[in-house]
Amino acid sequence: ADGPGWFLAEQPTGVMGQLRDGIRVFLVDSWPGQATARPGVVANTEASRARAVEQAREEFGPQVLASAERLRASLDLTPRGPVEPYLCHALCELGATAWVPLMQDVRAWLAAHPDEVVTFFVQDEVSPADTAAVFEEAGLTELIHTQQAGRPWPTLQQMIRSGRRLVVLHENTVDTAAVPWLLDAKTWVQDTPFGFRSAEELTTGDRGCSLLRGQEDSPLFLVNHWLSNYTSRVADAGVVNARSVLEGRLRACQEQRGLRPTFVAVDNYDRGDLLEVVDSLNGL
Question: Is 284 helix (H, G, I), strand (E, B) or coil?
C-alpha cells in the first residue's frame, strides 16, 4: 500500500518492509512488462495481456477490470520499450515492481542477516530462463537451495550452515535440467483452497483445509488464509488474522492433513496476530 502506483494492495508495505517485520515467505506474481508514456507506470506486454485480463477478471471482478481498462485508455498506457520482468498482480498498470532491483536489495538483506531463510513462491508468467536471469543478475544463485528428489528437506539450521538459505518455487513451469534450483511447486508443495468470502466459510467444514494443489505426500504445506472481498480487505484481515480464527484453522488443517503448515499466507500481515500464532505453532 505504501508503494507508488499500487492499487488494490494486499499488504501494507513491500518485500523489504516485510522482511524487516518478520515475514519469510513471499507469494509473488511475475509478468513481462514494458514502460508506458506515463513515467513510472508499467503495462503488461501485448503478448501477456490476455492472460492478465483473465486473471484480473477472476480475482478482482468485472467492475474493477472495467475501471482498469478505462484508466489504461485515458492515460495512454500502451506498452513500449524493452520487455523487463516485473512483479505485478495480474494487471501491471495497477502496480508493478521491477524484479531485478528488488532482488538485489534482498541479496543485501540476506548478507546482513546470515541466520535467516527466505522463500519466494512465484506464480510465474515469466519463463524459467528469465527467472533464472533475475536471480543471477541479483547475485543470489550461490544462496539458493536445490532440493533433490527423493531426499528429505534439510532443517532450517542445516540450510543456514550450508549457506543455501533461499528457496525459489515456480507455480506454473520449470526447467529442472537448465535451472535445477527452480523448484516445481506442484511437486513440493500442497496447499489449501482460497476464494472464501467470510470467516465462517473459511473455518467451517472440511473444505477450508482440503487439498487444492500439489500431492497428498508433498512435503511442504501452504495454508492460504484470506478473504477475497476487495472492498473490505483490510478490515477482513483484522478478523481472520485474529488468533481465535487463525490459530484454530491452522491447527485444524494440521490435524486434517497430518502435516504442520510450512507457509502461512495472509493479507495485511500487520492486522491481527499472525506472528504470535506462527510462534505458537512452532512451539515458541
Answer: coil
Q: CA-to-CA distance for 265 and 86, rounded, in angstroms? A: 21
What type of residue sits at position 283?
G
- Cβ proximity of 261 and 255 under 8 Å: no
Residues in Cβ contact with 70 at an 8 Å cutoff, skipping those fewer than 6 apart: none
* For range 47-63, the mean pLDDT: 89
| Cell numbers for 229 | 472481498
User: What is the pTM (predicted TM-score) of this model?
Assistant: 0.95
Measured distance CA(67)–CA(265) in Å, rounded: 28
> What per-residue string of b and e applies to 261-271 under the rule 16 or more CB within 10 Å gives b?
bbbbbbbbbbb
Q: How confident is the model at residue 72 (pLDDT cuts 50, 70, 90)?
A: low
- Encode pLDDT of 88-114 as tens digits: 999 998 899 999 999 999 999 999 999
In Å, what is the CA distance from 281 to each residue of 228, 247, 255, 267, 274? 25, 8, 12, 19, 11
Other CB atoms within a 10 A radius of the CB of residue 106 amount to: 22
